[in-house]
Amino acid sequence: MWNLDNRVRSAMVSDALDTLGIRHQAMDISVRPLKQGMRIVGLAATAQFVAESEFDEKDPYGPAIDYLDTLAPGEVAAIATGGLCLSAFWGELFSAAAKGRGAHGVVTDGPLRDTEQILAIDFPAFGQASRPYDYKGRMVLSSVRKEITCGGVKISSGDGIIADSDGVVVVPAHLLEQVSEIANARALAEKTVLKDLLAGKSVREVWNSYGIL
Predict the structure, then answer these.
(1) Is position 7 within any domain?
(2) Sequence-distant (≥ 6) Cβ neighbours of residue 85 within 8 angstroms
(3) What is the helix (H) or strand (E) element at residue 47, kind and residue range?
(4) What was the pLDDT predicted at 1?
(5) Alpha carbons 81 and 92: distance in angstroms, whole number
(6) 212 phi, psi to nearest 5 deg
(7) Could you list the residue range(s) of the whole structural domain that residue 85 is in?
(8) Residue 212 to residues 9, 15, 19: CA-CA distances in angstroms?
(9) CA angle, 9 as apex, 17 and 98 as ends, to 5°?
(10) Distance CA 16, CA 8 (A)
């Protein structure tokens, strides 16, 4: 169950995974939000793009259209490119389609495009910079809802994703409930820790009381 308190941040989820001995679940620092303040929490719907110059002249976007039409409420489009920046494959219209289907955002290790328009429709998007190139004739969608590696992290459909200004963290599906409990408890405790620190209590005193910093 992926049930995170609104106060939970990606750093708290990363700390929860560390507690369980699961490390290296944060995407590369090149995967950034289009603007500060964006936040995504949802379940991954994976897709893989690869370099390819050939395409179907009659239906060049067919596989991507079919993928978009599978997105369900609460899902996050998680799209791997192997870090290739040959083209952008996600822009305004894909964002509109995903938002219309109830998806919570997109994360990718490739470029985005139509970035101002994505911002205008208020769709959370994380990627590696931006580029105006269309993917037709440059890249092709090679698989959907299979395991991918995006931003250096392995992701399967159904894994949890939390993304914010600190980065993108992936939680394996079988750990969602456990990580949620740990992260939610930390968010609740940090509220008290913050209050005590602002009130002038020593860092050592706070640490000894709560074991949180």
Answers:
(1) no
(2) 110, 111, 128, 129, 131
(3) strand 40-51
(4) 64
(5) 19
(6) -130, 130
(7) 26-171
(8) 15, 10, 12
(9) 100
(10) 11
Residues of the chain with pLDDT under 70: 1
Residue 208 lies in a domain: no
Instruction: Count CB atoms within 10 A of the CB of residue 5.
Output: 13
Cα distance between residue 210 and residue 19, in whole Å: 15
Contact 75, 46 (CB under 8 A): no
Instruction: Pull the structure tokens for residue 115.
Output: 């970035």
Give pLDDT tens digits for 139-187: 999 999 999 999 999 999 999 999 999 999 999 999 999 999 999 999 9
Paired tokens of 197: 């620190």
**Which of 180, 164, 158, 192 is CA-nearest to residue 72?**
158
Domain count of the fold of the chain: 1
Q: How far apart are CA 205 and CA 186, in angstroms?
A: 18
Q: Is residue 135 part of a domain?
A: yes
Q: What is the pTM of this model?
A: 0.93
Whether 34 is covered by a domain: the verdict is: yes
